[in-house]
């Protein structure tokens, strides 16, 4: 069994063909998926999918790339997360790759998400790009270890992975780990303890080999898991079983709804 711990089923590339996407999941042994929110305007779509399908879960949050999104309060996030199918806060974090200039608003938004996750008792889904030092610093300052979560679509160094795991966070690998130029990331995938690992697609983006350049979908998380299994000289079943157990250990609300 496999779980896609991070996808965007409400995005146009997938939402328009959702029954087929979910059928493909089942055929490939992907029994559960977490549909991750990136804006509050789209959150009703995310929640509607999770409410309709028992094997799909939801999260609520504002991605750091959305500068023009209306700012949210801690109280609003906690209120929106108060639903049995909402299992996490995020995705949230810092992204210094796409945006330039004074990004204090991004850091303050990240802090609010951490505070909301602690208040709601639901783990964080963290995005970080070109901002690992500040991301980890804010996680420590805000006490993110009190709630834990996942560093999604991980592309950082082993040192960053170790620091995140020391704060109680899981490390999630996407289709990037299958790319031929991802040797450094593959080394991290070989080192992360099996009980601290998740797998994801981040679909419709980042399709793994052999689908690179095409629309990604949750069924393809199988290829992420198989690549990690090959790197670690173990079986797909071993990676699938471990990452599925990790998913339900981290996202405790998903276990309740299972």
Q: How do the strands and helices of this protein lay out in sequence?
A:
Elements: E1 2-7, H1 12-15, H2 18-27, E2 30-35, H3 43-52, E3 56-60, H4 74-81, E4 86-95, H5 104-120, E5 124-129, H6 132-141, E6 149-151, H7 158-166, E7 169-173, H8 183-191, E8 197-199, H9 221-231, H10 236-250, H11 252-257
Parallel strand pairs: 1-2, 2-3, 3-4, 4-5, 5-6, 6-7, 7-8
Brief characterization of the structure:
This protein is of the alpha/beta class.
Mean pLDDT: 96
In the CATH hierarchy, the third-tier topology is known as TIM Barrel
Question: Quick one: biggest sheet?
Answer: 8 strands, parallel
Can you tell me the CATH superfamily? Answer: Metal-dependent hydrolases
Distance between the termini: 14 Å
Describe what you observe in this structure.
The mean pLDDT is about 95. The protein has a single domain (about 1-255), classed as Metal-dependent hydrolases (TIM Barrel), CATH 3.20.20.140. The chain is built from eleven helices and eight strands. About 50% of the residues are buried. The chain is an alpha/beta fold and about 260 residues long.
């Amino acid at each position: 069994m496999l779980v896609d711990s991070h996808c965007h089923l409400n995005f146009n590339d997938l939402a328009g063909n959702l029954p087929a996407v979910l059928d493909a999941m089942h055929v490939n042994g992907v029994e559960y998926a977490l549909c991750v929110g990136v804006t509050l305007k789209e959150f009703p779509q995310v929640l509607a999918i999770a409410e309709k399908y028992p094997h799909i879960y939801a999260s609520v949050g504002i991605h750091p790339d959305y500068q023009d999104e209306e700012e949210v309060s801690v109280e609003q996030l906690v209120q929106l997360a108060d639903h049995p199918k909402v299992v996490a806060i995020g995705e949230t974090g810092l992204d210094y790759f796409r945006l330039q200039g004074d990004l204090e608003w991004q850091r303050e938004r990240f802090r609010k998400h951490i505070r909301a996750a602690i208040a709601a008792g639901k783990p964080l889904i963290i995005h970080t790009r070109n901002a690992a030092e500040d991301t980890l610093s804010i996680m420590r300052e805000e006490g993110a270890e009190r709630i834990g979560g996942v560093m999604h679509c991980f592309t950082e160094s082993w040192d960053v992975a170790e620091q995140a795991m020391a704060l109680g966070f899981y490390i999630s690998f996407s289709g990037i780990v299958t790319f031929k130029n991802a040797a450094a990331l593959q080394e991290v995938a070989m080192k992360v303890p099996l009980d601290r690992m998740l797998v994801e697609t981040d679909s419709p983006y980042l399709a793994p080999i052999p689908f690179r350049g095409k629309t990604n979908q949750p069924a393809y998380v199988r290829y992420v898991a198989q690549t990690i299994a090959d790197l670690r000289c173990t079986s797909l079943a071993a990676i699938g079983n471990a990452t599925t157990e990790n998913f339900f250990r981290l996202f405790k609300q998903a276990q309740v709804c299972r």
